[in-house]
Design goal:
CATH topology: Rossmann fold
Order of helices and strands: EHEHHHEHEHEEEHEH
Distance between the termini: 26 Å
Shape: globular
Largest sheet: 5 strands, parallel
Strand content: 15-25%
CATH class: Alpha Beta
Number of helices: 8
Bound molecules: adenosine monophosphate
Strand order of the largest sheet: 2-3-1-4-8
Number of strands: 8
Number of domains: 1
Structural class: alpha/beta
CATH superfamily: P-loop containing nucleotide triphosphate hydrolases
């Protein structure tokens, strides 16, 4: 069983890399941001509690995060392991997590500030089927329209310059200590996230001693 945490600022490509690893190694991909967005879209009680915080790009309280992560992991549908994306995001969350779970490695994707800002402002997703786009790297054939289902492409509500700045500041202030905690346990592998998707994936696998990817992500 493989249990990983993937870390990096928004737009570092951690979600993309997590999905590839999850698919190829049968890991359950647990994205805390996706869990919140699902709850918001489906108007659950939890969604109502976190809606404003998520829209502002601020961090949800540790108590709520512990609840949602605990609930998700207690489903025990991760026979081959899991990859946690977007958690832990501060020292308290890391400590709480390490009390109950051990992990094999933390994958840290490193991307400079200016590149991240540019990437995040150009990302879109299909409002109907959820497919991800990037106006520079993965452009739709017809502007603002999903290639697969014809749905309208929209930006995440929290992908504004102000919200991104707030999330980047949060990352540097609060998430760095998490890296320090894991580094003490010698669990971190750091990869250069400015490379192509396939190159980033290969370097993650090399460092984790996992079998190489047979073909690219497409
Ligand atoms: P993400 O998709 O990882 O960018 O997460 C979207 C939003 O969900 C964040 O801006 C936070 O508001 C909230 N969120 C996700 N993960 C956490 C976490 N571990 N702690 C607190 N808030 C979180």
């Amino acid at each position: 069983m493989n249990k990983y945490v993937i870390m990096g600022v928004q737009g570092s490509g951690k979600g993309t890399q997590a999905k590839i690893l999850a698919k190829d190694f049968d890991l359950v991909h647990i994205s805390v941001g996706d869990l919140f967005r699902w709850n918001i879209q489906n108007h659950t009680k939890l969604g109502a509690r976190v809606k404003r915080t998520v829209a502002a790009g601020e961090l949800v309280t540790d108590e709520v995060v512990a609840e949602i992560v605990g609930r998700r992991l207690s489903q025990h549908d991760w026979n081959y392991g899991f990859i946690l994306d977007g958690f832990p995001r501060n020292g308290a969350q890391a400590e709480f997590f390490l009390e109950s779970y051990d992990i094999d490695a933390v994958i840290n994707i490193d991307v400079p500030y200016e590149i991240v800002m540019h990437r995040v402002l150009s990302r879109r997703y299909c409002s109907r089927c959820g497919l991800d786009y990037n106006l520079f790297l993965h452009r739709p054939e017809v502007a603002n329209t999903c290639d697969v289902c014809g749905g309208e492409l929209v930006s995440r509500q929290d992908d504004t310059e102000e919200a991104i700045r707030s999330r980047l500041d949060d990352f540097h202030e609060k998430t760095r200590p998490v890296l320090d905690i894991f580094a003490r346990k010698e669990l971190i592998v750091t990869v250069d996230g400015t490379q192509s998707i396939d190159e980033v994936q290969q370097s993650i696998r090399q460092q984790l001693h996992l079998p190489a990817q047979e073909s690219g992500h497409n």
